[in-house]
Design goal:
Elements lengths: L8 E3 L12 H5 L3 H21 L5 H29 L2 E3 L2 E4 L7 H19 L29 H23 L8 E3 L34 H4 L4 E3 L19 H8 L16 H4 L10 E6 L2 E7 L8 E8 L18 E11 L16 H20 L9 H4 L34
Antiparallel strand pairs: 1-2, 2-3, 4-5, 6-7, 7-8, 8-9
Length: 431
Amino acid sequence: MPFFFNHFTTMSISLHAGDDDESITKSTVPHYKELILASLLVTTLTLGILKQWQVIGRKALIGMMCLTVMLSGATYVFIQTNKHLNSILMRNHSYIEQPIRLENFTERLVREGVDFLEQRKNDGSPFLLVMSWLQVHTVLHASSKFKGQSVHGLYGDEIEEMDWSVGRILETLKRLDLLDDSFVYFTSDNGGHVEEIGPHGDRQGGHNGIFRGGKAQGGMEGGIRVPTVAMWSGHIKAGLVIDEPTSQMDLLPTIAEIINVKVPRDRIIDGKSMLGLLGGKTEQTPHDFLFHYCGLDIHAARYRPLMGKTVWKLRYTSPNWLPGTEGCTFLCYCYTSHTRLSEPLLYDITHDPSESHPINISSSEQYQNIVNKINAAVISHKKSIVPVMNQMDVWRLAWRPWLQPCCNFPFCDCQEVPRKDFNYTCPTDKT
C-alpha cells in the first residue's frame, strides 16, 4: 500500500525567548555585555600583575592578551548572532525563514496542513500528516487575534489559539470528506514545565493538576503523564475513557497495524499496538511494564499485572526540589538535580496518582513480590539494549561552520512571504 509522506515543514531549536524578540541567551543573561567587559578587565589586570611579578614574559603577555580579546569578542558575536544561526524554518529541504518570526506562526502551520490535505484529496494518496505545534511551549506567541482573549492570561490565549488550529484541521478533513476514514491522535510530549515563569511572574509552563513534578523529571507523574484524545469513525467509540498506561512509542506499531504494514523485525520495537485498547476489544494496556527514563538512566518503572486493575510504580530517584516547590532552578536535570534512592519507593499509582503515600514494602509479602518483579523486568530490559553512538556527544553538538544553514548568504536572514489566499478565520472574528 503506497504511503505518502514526502513533504514537511520543520524548525530547528529556536532561541527566541520573549516578546522583545531577544534570544534565550540574552534573556537568561541580560547583562552579558557587562559580564564580558568585567571578565576582560579582570583578566587584563591579572596578566598585568603576573607580568609585574615576572611570572610571565612580554611575549607571553601579548599572546595571552590577544587570546583573551579574541575569546571575549567571539563570545559577544556568538550571543549577538546565535538566534540567527539556530532559529531556522524549513520547507522540505529549503530554508524559508531565518530567524523564525513567531507572529502568526500557528496560522502558517495550519495553512501548510490544509494545503497538504487538499493535495492528498486531489491525488488520492494515503497520507500521514504530523502537525507539530509550537504551542503551548515557551516562548508563548499567541497571535494578535487571540492575544488578550482568555481570562487565563497569555497561556490561556495560547490554548485557545491551539484549540482553534486543531479545529481548522478537523474542519478541513470533514470538508474534504476524509474525516471518517482518518485516524486522528492528539497528544503531547511531556508534562508542564513548572519552573517556567514569565517576566511578569505569570506561570507560562503549564499546570499538572494533581500530578507531582513536571517536565524533565523522568520519574514523576507530572513529567510523564500527558493528555491524549483519539478519534476514528467506526473504530473508536465516542466518549470512551481509557485509564490504562500507554506510551508514545505505541504510535508506530498502531499506525503500522492500521495501514496493514509489518513493523521491522531486525530490531526490538518497544511500542505495542493500541488498536485493541482504543477499539474496545480489550480493557487492558498491551504493556506489562513501562520504563521511565531520564537521559540514559531509568528513574522509574511501571507494572500493570494481568489480574486486577491496579498499576504499580517503583521510583528509583527523587528530584532535588527547591524548598516549598516541586521544581528546580530551571529544570531538574537528569544527572545533577536527582538523587538515587538507597531504597526505591513503591506507589499504587491507580489509587494514589499524586504519589503522596509511598507503600511500606516490608509490610507485606505481596509488595515485596511486586518490587521483585519490577526489578527483574528492569534488569531484563537493560540486557536487551544494544549500545549505539551517542547523538549528543561533544563533537556532534559542536558548531561546524561548513554545516551551518544560511539563507540569503552571508546575512543568514530571510523571511517567508505571507500569503493572502488563506482564510484565517478564528472565533474572535465572529464576535
